[in-house]
Amino acid sequence: MPTALTGIFLLVAICMSVAIPSQAIAQETASTVLPSPFDTAVSEARSNMMASPPDALAAAERAAGIAAEFPEGHDRNTALATASWLQSEALTRLGRPAEAGPVARTALEQLGEDPEATKLYADILLSLGRTEKLLGRHGDALEIYQQAYGVYQEIGETRSESIVLQSIGSIYNDARQFERAAEYFLDATERFQDPSLDLAAFNNLGNAYTELRQYDEALTYYNRALAIAAEMNAAMLEARILNNIASLQVAHGEYNAADMSLDAAFARAGDPSGAEWARFMWGVRAQAAHGRGEEVRARNFMERTFEGVPLDQTNQHFTEFHGTAVEIFIALEDWESALAHLQAFKRLEDEGREFAASANAALVGAQFDFAEQEIQIQELRAAGLENALQLARTQARQRQFVAAGIAALFVLLLLVAWLRVRVARERQRALEQALYTDSATGLPTRSALIRQLREKEKSSDTVLTVVAIELDRHTHLEGVLGFKNFAELQAAIARRLSEEGDYDDVALVSPGLFALYVESDDEHRLRDEAELIRNYFTQPIRLDNLDIDVAMTIGMASDEDPETGLKNAIIAIQQARAAHTSLAGFDAVAYGDPSENLTTMSRMLAAMENGDMALHYQPKLNLRKGQYLAAESLCRWTDPERGFIPPDTFIPQAEETGHIRAFTEWALNEVVEARIALKKAGHDIDLAVNISGALVADIGFARKALDIVERAPGGIVFEVTETAMMHDAERALENFDRWADAGVKIGIDDYGSGFSSLAYLKRLPSSELKLDRMFITNIAGSERDRTLVKSTIDLAHNLGLQITAEGVETEEALALLKLLGCDWAQGYLMTKALPLDDFSAFLDWSHTVGEREIGPARTRPLREIPQGRR
Ligand code: C2E
Ligand code: CA
Ligand code: CA
Fold first, then answer.
1. What is the 825 CA–ligand 1 centroid distance (Å)?
2. Residue 124 in contact with residue 83, Cβ under 8 Å?
3. Which listed ligand is nearest to 644 at the C-alpha?
4. Cβ–Cβ under 8 Å, residues 793 and 803
5. How far, in Å, CA of 863 to CA of 845, rounded?
6. Where does the UniProt annotation place the signal sequence (predicted)?
7. For residues 616 and 839, is the Cβ–Cβ distance under 8 A?
8. Are 672 and 711 in contact (CB under 8 A)?
9. Whose CA is nearest to atom 19 of ligand 1?
10. Distance between CA 291 and CA 318 in Å, rounded?
11. Closest listed residue to residue 360, CA positions, set 756, 772, 776
12. Which residue, by CA, sits nearest to atom 41 of ligand 1?
């Protein structure tokens, strides 16, 4: 129930923060003698902040009015700033961050150009950071939090430092990096012990562990929070924590326990009617009832959650409740309500992904070593790169944007993958519902047809024939008619088919392509049927007052497998078009072997035997020693008929078809031979092999690989991508340990291009991190990329890993990487991957030049070897 919890999490966090600023005011105002109406208004705003934000807001506005009458001067400014800040806090509490932000900024302005380091100043920053965060501007929020942190440190406000730590933790929370979030929350409790802060932190820890699916930890922290709330006699907070506990229990299938927690929560909260947060309690109640299969009760509870709220305007806190509502309404066969909730659910999940992506981009970008960055830039300047830097400055904004976009994109992809898993498990039924109807036309989709065919197949012995009907020139028609009219046209075509032809399920497979089935495979009957279908369209279709002439091309195929039947029927349409007719049955012979995969794979296997496939070697420059001390093997396949086939095209196929194992064993053998040959030639260097993620959890392969590697005279590296670990992490880790024990080094490939989980990195017995080339390409031009690279280098070094930069193409990039402390560089600047002989010659040459002279420009004399030719 993650999102519901997040909602409650926010409530607690905000009320904590309000408690603190009140002390600030006391400090700020104690030293100055101000007229008492102002003091009264301020203390009224403060005391109402938690219980009644509207009253707090009114009082703060009154305070602002009084302050405006003060004589010009320092006191007036401080008073105005205090009043504005309180207004902004109240607005945030009222769920109006978009208004709160500008008011907080006004407060800052009222403090003057260069404010002194006071608590008021830092408190305003903290409020502003929070509004930015709520508005999804995580980058700004993080920067402002850091500023606030700096001020608090300067004035020795440890308690407030702890609050900032919690706030930063909550950004990690938004980024769905719950482990890091938990670290920050724990840090916060250690930084300063204080019941109300601890209460927020423990509750947040409970939430983080709930998300991490660590039930015991979550419960322990919730209970600690609960104990504090009880001691403080804060019934409302107790109720909310109890609600969190109930939510945790629901997530673990303990529905009766959840009900008991909720009973307790309702008891503590007193009469919850009208209270905004009571919706969440009803929502969890509904989830518990739904979990027990009591759908009618569940619906009644759920109705209270959404009472008076337009479904298309709900916020993030409702996401999970929408999800449950979909399931409840499906169970009750109330399709309309189910669909409305499904739409809301999807809208919120999209928003949620964007929100998390923004938070992640901010976290990836904002590192805490800006000062160090400045030093680097000074050094660079000295190195004579002013021009490049100048350029970089002017383009910085734009590029930052791109970098943030890329980072966001990766997170998005990850989240999509993650969501798929979740959706598959928890919401399959609900989403299927949407899957089976085309949203624009209301027609059954391809999936619906396939499902229908499957069912039919089971219940009858007759062979089914799929009839695919394509509207001629439909792309053109769509362009002329526009999306909406075209949708209507399609609906009208389907209608005519079902009315005239009495077919009940006419599916829309893709734009302009319809399909239905006939219970027969008798050729004559089918031909007649198809003729009839064509005749239905001799009359134009009327749309509004427009008569549209339509023509159809028809393809038919019978197959036991509905998917194949449909696919072949569509191919038959192409065959009809190729034969300049408007009707054809699928001709398997003319189509030939449809499995391109199979031929590619058998060709690949042959290429490994006959020498069309070879491994090339791209050297890696050790930046500390200025020598080529390692290389990566990359496969090069030149097919006599198809020419050069890039690894990116056939490796994925090999992974899908399972041929990757034979291929990789072949590559390993090659590398071991190369390792032996190079050593003989006097080059005792590490050679890396790319190990597909599909293999890292394969125990058979793990053993075989060890057998092969045993023959190598040392120095073999397995490059695996970080995503490889995501499939079967435990297995993969076992294999990695096994390999590492046998002396194989592990390198993490394409780091940064996927999901980088620190937790995994720590557990891996790896020795090298290869930074993906997208971070390197633009390193001279983008400060943001530099920051990213720098922080990754530091991270790698902290974990005891060497770091390799991939895709080094320019001298500037190389210079920068050295400066940033990178250990290895690999890229076209030095050379492309070379055939073994050329590679050996390259190493010979590199020994003949002095250490300091070795460098990119000197590699140029070497013969250029085009990619893929041997
Ligand atoms: P990878 O492991 O990230 O390999 C590095 C890729 O970057 C190689 O592409 C290499 O030619 C290219 N590259 C090197 N320096 C530069 C540079 O300065 N600029 C640019 N733009 N590119 C550079 P390649 O050879 O096309 O390989 C693509 C991917 O195919 C590899 O990515 C790897 O994932 C996979 N692959 C290649 N060989 C094998 C193999 O033997 N086994 C397996 N399982 N995968 C392989
Ligand atoms: Ca690689
Ligand atoms: Ca790579």
1. 14
2. no
3. 1
4. yes
5. 12
6. 1-26
7. yes
8. yes
9. 807
10. 18
11. 756
12. 635
Atom of ligand 1 nearest to the CA of 829: 18
- Please check the confidence at residue 255 and state whether its pLDDT lies above 50: yes
Mean pLDDT of all residues belonging to the chain: 82
868 DSSP assignment: T
pLDDT digits (tens, 9 = 90+) for 396-450: 444 455 556 566 666 666 666 665 556 555 544 445 556 678 878 889 988 889 8
Give every CB contact of residue 294 below 8 A, 6+ residues apart in sequence: none
Q: Quote the pLDDT of residue 272.
A: 60
Residue of 632, 634, 719 to test ligand 1 pocket, by largest number of atoms within 8 Å of CB: 634
pLDDT in tens, 56-70: 999 999 999 999 998
Phi, psi values for residue 860, rounded to 5°: -55, -40
pLDDT number for residue 382:
44
pLDDT band of 627, cuts 50, 70, 90? very high
Q: Which residues pair with 92 in a beta bridge?
A: none
Q: What are the C-alpha distances in Å from 329 to residues 298, 354, 545?
A: 10, 28, 40
pLDDT by residue (tens digit) across 35-44?
579 999 999 9
Residue 25 has pLDDT above 50, yes or no: no
Residue to mutate (ligand 1; options 671, 690, 750; most atoms within 8 A of CB): 690
How is residue 121 written in tokens?
């100043």
Q: Which two tokens stand for residue 391?
A: 């350029």
Atom of ligand 1 nearest to the CA of 809: 18
- For ligand 1, atom 14, which residue shows the shortest CA distance? 827
The atom of ligand 1 lying closest to the CA of 667 is: 41
**Where does ligand 1 bind, in terms of residues with CB under 6 Å?**
618, 634-635, 646-648, 651, 664, 667, 690, 692, 749-750, 773, 807-809, 827-828, 833
Distance 826 CA to ligand 3 centre (A): 10
3-state secondary structure 397-441: HHHHHHHHHHHHHHHHHHHHHHHHHHHHHHCHHHHHHHHCECCCC
Residue identifier of the C-alpha nearest atom 20 of ligand 1: 807
| pLDDT at site 717 | 98
Of the listed ranges 388-392, 420-424, 628-632, the one predicted with least confidence: 388-392
Nearest bound ligand to the CA of residue 772: 3
Give the atom of ligand 1 at the shortest distance from the alpha carbon of 633: 41
Cα 804 to middle of ligand 2, angstroms: 11
Pairing state between β 507-510 and 513-518: antiparallel
Ligand 3 midpoint to CA 807 (Å): 8
| Residue 853 reports pLDDT greater than 70 | no
pLDDT tens, residue by residue, 664-673: 999 999 999 9
Report CA torsion sign: 648, 817, 831, 395: positive
**Confidence class for position 825, pLDDT limits 50, 70, 90:** very high
Ligand 2 centroid to Cα of residue 749, in Å, is: 5
Query: Which residues 6+ apart lie within 8 Å of 202 measured at CB?
Result: 189, 221, 222, 224, 225, 228
Residue 830 and residue 824 in contact, taking contact as beta carbons nearer than 8 Å: no
Ligand 3: centre distance to CA 721 (Å): 8
CA distance to 364, 365, 371, 385, 570, per residue, from 374 (Å): 18, 16, 5, 14, 61
The whole-angstrom separation of Cα 787 and Cα 376 is 10
Q: Quote the radius of gyration of the chain (alpha carbons, Å).
A: 33
Q: What is the pTM of this model?
A: 0.42
Give the pLDDT of residue 22: 34
520 against 26, higher pLDDT: 520
Secondary structure class of 817 (helix, strand, coil)? helix
Greatest alpha-carbon pair distance for the chain in Å reads: 103
pLDDT of residue 235: 83
Ligand closest to Cα of 750 equals: 3
Whether the per-residue pLDDT at 178 is higher than 50: the answer is yes
